[in-house]
Amino acid sequence: MSSYNVAPLAKLAEQFERLPGIGTKTAQRLAYHVLKMPREKALEFSQAILSAHDNIHYCNECCNLTDKDQCSVCANPKRDHSVICVVEDPRDVIAIERTQEYHGVYHVLHGAMSPLNGIGPEQLTIKELLARLQNDTVTEVIMATNPTIEGETTSMYISKLLKPLGIKVTRLAYGIPVGGDLEYADEVTLLRALEGRREM
After folding, report:
1. How many other CB atoms are found less than 10 A from the CB of residue 39?
2. Which of 11, 37, 155, 189 has its CA 20 to 30 A from that of 78?
3. DSSP per-residue string spanning the chain
4. Is the domain 7-55 a CATH 1.10.8.420 member?
C-alpha cells in the first residue's frame, strides 16, 4: 500500500485480500468498486454476506450446505438414496450436478485427511457418513475425493471402514482429459486411465 492511505478503504481492501486467490491489486480494485456502489447496493451486498453467514449450515443428512434442515438433494424423493457419492467440498456437489447424469445423493466430508496439517478422520464428517449406513438402504458408496495424496488417503481410509459392512465401494475413474495429449499425461493419470478403461 502506498504512503497515500485512507484508513477505511485500506481496511476494506485488507478484508478482500483475506479471501483465497485475491492478491493486493485485486483487493484494492474490489474495495474501490464497493466504494463506488450506491449506498443501498453496498447495504444489499453486506446484508447478503451476513444472511449467508447466519442462515447457512450443514444438511442434517449429507453435511452439504443448506438453509433448511435438509438440502434439496436429500429432500428429493426422486433421487436414488441407495447410492451415496462422497466428496470433499460442497463445490464438488455443484460440479457433479452440472453433468445432470448422477441421480444418487451425496455426502460432503468438508476436507481430506492430511496428518501434516493436523486433519484426521475426526475433523471430517466420517462418523456422520457411517451413521447413514446403519439402516441397510445404501448399496453403493462412490468415492469422489480429489485425485491427490490426501484425497486418495481419505478414500482408502473410508473404503476400509465400509468393506466389513458389505457395501459396494467404487472410486471415480480418473484419466486423460478430453482434448488432452497422451504424451503430456503423467504416469499416475495414465495408470488411472488404464484402470478405468471400459468396453466400447
Report:
1. 7
2. 155
3. --S---HHHHHHHHHHHTSTT--HHHHHHHHHHHHHS-HHHHHHHHHHHHHHHHH-EE-TTT--EESSSS-TTTT-TTSEEEEEEEESSHHHHHHHHHHS---EEEEE-SS--BGGGTB-GGGTTHHHHHHHGGGS---EEEE---SSHHHHHHHHHHHHHHGGGT-EEEE----PPTT--GGGS-HHHHHHHHHT----
4. yes
User: For 161-200, how does the pLDDT look when each residue is reduced to its tens digit (9 = 90+)?
Assistant: 999 999 999 998 877 777 777 777 777 777 877 877 767 5
Give the total residue count for the chain.
200
Q: Specify the amino acid at residue 6.
A: V
